[in-house]
Amino acid sequence: MKALEKRLSRFDYWYILREKRIGQTIIKSNDETNIIPSKTVNGAVASVCSGKRIVEIASDNMEYLNSFDWESLDNKYEYKIDEKPEELELVIPQTKEYFEESIKDRVDLIDDIWQKIKKCSKKILFLKVIITHNRLSQQFISGKRRFAQIIPRTGVMFSAVFYDKGKQKMIFGGTEQQGGLEVIDRFEYDQRIADGERLLDAERVNPGSYDAIFSPEFSGIFAHEAFGHGTEADLFEKDRSMAVKYLGRKVASSLVSLYDSPSLAGQAASYLFDDEGMISSPTKIIDKGILVGALTNFDGWIHNNIKRTANGRRENIFHKAYARMTNTYFEKGESKPVDMISSIDNGLMLCYPTNGMEDPKGWGIQLEGLAAKEIKSGRLTGKLFSPVIVTGFVPDLLKSISMVSDKMQIDGLGYCGKGNKEIVKVTDGGPYLKLKAIVA
């Protein structure tokens, strides 16, 4: 490592990112239990700025990195980079270390969760429970800048199929956060199981425009789709995002502020530094209705003259770093959820999102969910509609937001690809949002 550092020190800017990724998935279904190890990644990527370009070599063999002909590259970089020397380290604490438990103990744990969920409803036809644990260890070295982080993430998820009198419905849920087995202790599923059983009697909603409330989960998928890829600055370069034309302009109600932040404590997509050595901090994307920010990586910062943010992320060291989302969420407001419901005479509460699609170029959006809960005369009636689809033009939806709750939630189950590849961990969420929505 020292030899490689010495050889790279001739460049105006360089860094080495060492990385180890390990993990395990346990799946318990009606029929069997399977233990699946994650693909281990263990190696380093060396990156240098040469002329107008960035040259990177990745390998699981440090000798190979050191043997590369670095001297053949121009050691000067067209752009000036001035970074102060600093050393930082982050180790996420765990009260229950995952890999200290025996395989038998881990299997017994998932069996126990499976049995408890199964007992919640006699109408569960099929049940699957998944426990995941992944651990990321990284070292970043660039001259006198030296960072390290060890981030464990543990998740638990279930999907249940309900059956009664020829009707069949499915619901799923879970959580993933930083930490060890203590994350699983915080897992709650009772309300979802109850709603899953009620979905058996759900009808389709009459299509139309409704006064609607998005649950925190639905707010999250809205945040992810509306201002996820669309504010990743590399799309600005390619003229593939409407957002670049709206920077500095009003795109939402003045009640709306939206962030992407890899510095949120305990969240599954958080970290101390990104994969290009930028220390994490919040990025405000919308400030009281005004689109003010974008997400950048090193390359996007250099070439777009946009403020650098800590969003340079790789699937692993063998993949290129892109500008990517982390924890994307609406900021909470001041309204009480009960007051939001009581303000609606005839409307819906959208819950349990399943999928979303957005066109960054045209800003059309489609959000899909498992359930809409009926609101009549300011009360939830107990009636459910399923499935549901929300469509519209992003600014129209955002500008219609009239109430934002004082409670918020971040959901950690998501992963996100860029062009159906380059998979990274993301989370999203927010408060309850009251708005006008076209629902079908």
Give a quick summary of the entry.
The protein has 440 residues and is an alpha+beta fold.
Descriptors:
single chain, 440 residues, alpha+beta, eight-stranded mixed beta sheet, five-stranded mixed β-barrel, 10 helices
Helix-strand layout with pairing:
Blueprint: H1 2-8, E1 14-28, E2 33-37, E3 41-50, E4 53-59, H2 62-67, E5 86-91, H3 103-118, E6 124-142, E7 145-164, E8 167-178, H4 182-185, H5 190-198, E9 208-214, H6 216-227, H7 233-237, E10 258-260, E11 283-287, E12 290-291, H8 298-304, E13 312-313, E14 322-323, E15 327-330, H9 337-342, E16 346-358, E17 364-376, E18 379-385, E19 388-393, H10 394-399, E20 403-411, E21 415-416, E22 424-425, E23 427-439
Parallel strand pairs: 5-7, 9-16, 15-23
Antiparallel strand pairs: 1-2, 1-3, 1-6, 3-4, 6-7, 7-8, 9-23, 10-11, 10-15, 11-12, 13-14, 16-17, 17-18, 17-19, 19-23, 20-23, 21-22
Describe this structure as you would to a colleague.
The chain is of the alpha+beta class. 18% of the residues lie in helices and 42% in strands. It has ten helices and 23 strands. It has helices at residues 2-8, 62-67, 103-118, 182-185, 190-198, 216-227, 233-237, 298-304, 337-342, 394-399, and strands at 14-28, 33-37, 41-50, 53-59, 86-91, 124-142, 145-164, 167-178, 208-214, 258-260, 283-287, 290-291, 312-313, 322-323, 327-330, 346-358, 364-376, 379-385, 388-393, 403-411, 415-416, 424-425, 427-439. Strands 1, 2, 3, 4, 5, 6, 7 and 8 form an eight-stranded mixed β-sheet that branches. It has a five-stranded mixed β-barrel with strand order 9-16-17-19-23. Strand 7 and strand 8 (167-178) form a beta hairpin. It is globular, with a radius of gyration of 23 Å. The mean pLDDT is 95.
